[in-house]
Amino acid sequence: MERFVSTYGMSSVSAPAFDRVALVTGGAIRVGAAIVRTLAREGWRVWVHHRSSHEQAQALARELGPAVLGLVRADLRDAAARTKLCNTVVDQRSPSGGRLDLLVNSAASFEHGSFLQRQDDQLERVLQTNFVAPVSLVRGLAGPLASANGCVVNVLDLASHQAWPGYLDHCSAKAALAMATRVLAIELAPSIRVNGVSPGTVLWPDDTRYAPGSPVRERIVAGIPLGTIGTPEDVSGAIVYLAAAKHVTGHVLVVDGGRSAAGGREYG
After folding, report:
1. What is the pLDDT of residue 265?
2. How far is Cα of residue 212 from the mean position of the Cα atoms in its chain?
3. What are phi and psi for residue 206, nearest 5 degrees?
């Protein structure tokens, strides 16, 4: 299996003179794709990372045309693939000239299972995807981010500060990334701002337990004071805000319709 593939020039249309460049990991589908679309609409040029959603990534590039600088396929659990991803983005011969203003660490897994039935290798896999990879990319891209006085936005979720039975690996990884967000905000200041977005439910998981009318779905919605789940655009809007908020760093913006304020904790 190929661990890394990059593609430049997905559009034959001349690229406008955008002066803001972003990398969005996991940017081909679901919330990641919404982030890419919103950034493109706001005038950003975007590198779109994906691991296995190559057809969706190509379709997104065709849809957005010159706003997409290129597609980069990489398994972020693999250290060599992460290095190649960083090298592609910082390459001065690339369409962005090596510039990077924003890193959005959106790629994530969402594994579930009883603690006693899961194994150490599964824990390691979740940590690699949800914690090690984002931190590694910040380190690998710190140079161009600092040159641009840029920022990092880590996409967390409510698991970063709530205990969900059956999701120990996921909760632990997201909690670690939340703490890394605060530490890096201090260590990388004043050149790089580091913040996080912590969404509640904005899309239902692809799992029959969350089917329309299911007790799980009804219970989750009942715990949201605003009475409905959010949308991926709610998350991407928060990221656009944090990218522009020049005096905000070290914070996590919760986008959950008031669920955490109301004490909602259970997931599934």
Report:
1. 59
2. 26
3. -80, 75
Reduce the DSSP state of residue 104 to 3 states and report it: strand
Of 204, 202, 257, 198, which is closest to residue 226 (Cα–Cα)? 257
| Contact assessment for residue 33 and residue 60, using Cβ atoms and an 8 Å cutoff | yes
Distance CA 164, CA 167 (A): 6
Which residues of the chain have a pLDDT value below 50?
A: 1, 10-17
CA dihedral 125, 178, 236, 24 (to 10 degrees): -50
Beta carbons of 81 and 52 less than 8 angstroms apart = no
Q: How far is C-alpha 129 from the geometric centre of its chain's CA atoms?
A: 11
Query: Domain residues of the chain, as ranges?
Result: 4-255
Q: What is the pLDDT of residue 207?
A: 83
Let me know: does 85 contact 71? Beta carbons within 8 Å. Answer: no
CA–CA distance, 180 with 119 (Å, rounded to integer): 25
The distance of Cα 229 from the centroid of its chain, to the nearest Å, equals: 19
How would you classify residue 226: left for phi > 0, otherwise alpha for psi between -120 and 50, otherwise beta? alpha
| Dihedral angle over CA of 255, 261, 265, 268, nearest 10 | -50
Q: Cβ(107)–Cβ(31) under 8 Å?
A: no
| Closest listed residue to residue 227, CA positions, set 264, 254, 265 | 264
Q: Does domain 4-255 have CATH number 3.90.180.10?
A: no
Q: By 3-state DSSP, what share of the chain in percent is helix, strand and coil, each rounded to 5?
A: 40, 15, 40
